[in-house]
Amino acid sequence: MTGAWPPAGTAEARAPHPADRGPLDIDTDLVRDWLVQFLREEIERRRGFRRVVVGLSGGVDSALTAALCVEALGPEAVLALLLPYRTSSPRSREHALLVAGKFGIPTRTIDITRAVDGYLDEFEPEAGGHRRGNVAARQRMIVLFDQAFKLSALPVGTGNKSERLLGYYTWHADDSPPVNPLGDLFKSQVWALARAIGVPVEVVDKPATADLIQGQTDEDDLGATYPEADLILHHLTSGRGADDLVEAGFERTKVELVARRLESTHWKRHLPTVAMLSPTAIGEWYLRPVDY
Amino acid sequence: MPLDIAIAQFRPSKGDFDATLDGCAGIIRRAAGAERRPRLIVFPETALTGYFLEGGVREQAIAAPELFEALNARVGEDADGLDVAIGFYERDAAGIYNSALYATLGPGGGILHVHRKVFLATYGVFQEERFVEAGAGIRAFDAPPGRTALLICEDGFHSVSGTLAALDGASIILILSASPARGAAPGAGVPGNLVRWDALASGIAAEHGVFVIVSQLVGFEGGKGFAGGSAAYDPRGHRLLAGPLWEEAVLPVRVDLDEAARARTEEPLFSDLERSWTRLLVNSPGSGVRRPAPDGE
Q1: How many CB pairs (< 8 A) connect A and B?
Q2: Do B14 and A292 touch (CB under 8 A)?
Q3: A277 touches chain B (CB under 8 A)
Q4: pLDDT tens figures, A198-246
Q5: Beta-bridge partner residues of B224
Q6: Count of alpha carbons within 13 Å of A222, Cβ hemisphere only?
């Protein structure tokens, strides 16, 4: 702990302004230590696992997650799974291997094409890119969890706060691993932390993409850049209304787009809805924490 | 008179009462055998169980005498005469509380005070009112180190808590806390909640001319991180020490209770408060006393 704390009073409290990115600034040293401790405790102490598996896509989220796992547990405790589909970009694989090499992480490649196409080609050949993307994402989780079981390891999730709030992920796929270090960091904060921790610049600086559909980028899909969306999301989740932000100078179309995605995806951030019949309904009346 | 206190920045084994009590007892025994034996060891809020238990408080809460006996049985004679303050979920006939026990260990000792958290945090990530009852008041008590008061976490966020403790004669205020880390803005090097704690505890100490000891829980519970960062403040509000982040630590701090009197003499805020308190209460909103109308009305 430092000996000279600043007075209380934070950037979060300032009035919103599109040019003021202060609320998203993070102390990367602090967050790095915080997340490393989080991983150690949640994986080893609370759950008793010594190993983890991470799906390494070639993107910045999984690269940062894997790097944090290495720092928390050591490279020998981490297995990076490369899970390409036939439409995946070769650059994704190159970047995944670059990250694995940089942090000394063992890798295994399991091509999911036959598993995905075995279902789609035989039963749903007309399925479009969106459905194919969802099937691929869920297939990746099948592999991730099965490999984890085989290795007595824990799958670690890589989803960030931006995509969670925007609902920009496949439900019960990307969001399913039991431990996730990045889920409370916006994408622009992930970029900042990834740079600080030494994720290769090729990976940090490239356009974000789920790589589920060829040529797809997150920002094209979303209709806003992550820096724009992140700041709007920050203010909306801090109690500001969309009209307040427009009045403060934010672009109305972007605010409405982000607000609409946020408000239409609350369901995606919850477990399935269960019909409550009794005064011992799990999670409603019978309440015990996840680590109890 | 100098007094040695140890702040036990502690990580419980959540839900494993015996393992956690063994951990506490180990710290107490080691402190008792140390070259500079502390007079008092201060553990954090809910040190015996972890903080976020939800309905699990029903299984984990115990009566204060039961805790005292269990501690004594584990620490043995080595700790005779050593004082301990420790946070736990307390059960009695009327309900379950988020409490702090202050006791002198050993056969000649006993329970000196139990404080039940008054201000139950029930907002955002906190759900205390759903699971525990609120305490009725804040009182100081005579302890071997000096007149002492206990506060638990949000109690310390309300300036009236320090005021009541000081007015009841406390010269040492022990704040037992389990404060989930949040806020990572650049500049402080610590989570934002600890910056807030620093201002709060320093303010209590300086306003009332008392020593303030803040013992923080450490460890992660379901993604919520208790960062540690325990601290101690002298009666002028200066921080005497700051505990490390994310790890357990036993932090020795030596305090001179005569400093409280000196600080109060130099800056007599406390005597101003004492003198004005009754008048302020009588004239406060809700007192039932109707203020006289200004002249001419």
Answers
A1: 96
A2: yes
A3: no
A4: 999 999 999 888 777 777 788 888 889 999 999 999 999 999 999 999 9
A5: B221
A6: 29
B52 touches chain A (CB under 8 A): yes
Q: How confident is the model at residue A183 (pLDDT cuts 50, 70, 90)?
A: very high
Q: Determine, for residues B52 and A289 on separate chains, whether the beta-carbon distance falls below 8 Å.
A: yes
Instruction: Scan residues 184-213 of B and list those with Cβ closer than 8 Å to A.
Output: 184-192, 194-196, 198-199
- How much is the pLDDT for A10? 55
| A13 interfaces chain B, CB cutoff of 8 Å | no
Name the closest residue on chain A to residue B183, using Cα atoms. A26
Say how many C-beta atoms besides its own lie within 10 A of residue A228's C-beta.
20
Task: Check CB contact of A125 with chain B, cutoff 8 Å.
Answer: no
| Nearest alpha-carbon partner for B17 in B65, B53, B54, B42 | B53
In this prediction, residue A222 carries a pLDDT of: 87
CA distance B274 to chain A (A): 29
- The pLDDT assigned to B177 comes to 98
Residues of B in contact with A45 (CB under 8 A): 219-220
Sort out which chain A residues have CB atoms less than 8 A from B223's CB and list them.
38, 42
Find the CB nearest A5 among B184, B195, B225: B195
How far is residue B90's CA from residue B48's CA, in Å, rounded to a whole number? 11
Distance of CA B235 to the CA centre of its chain: 16
What ipTM score was computed for the predicted complex, to two decimals?
Answer: 0.92
The pLDDT, as a whole number, for residue B297 is 46
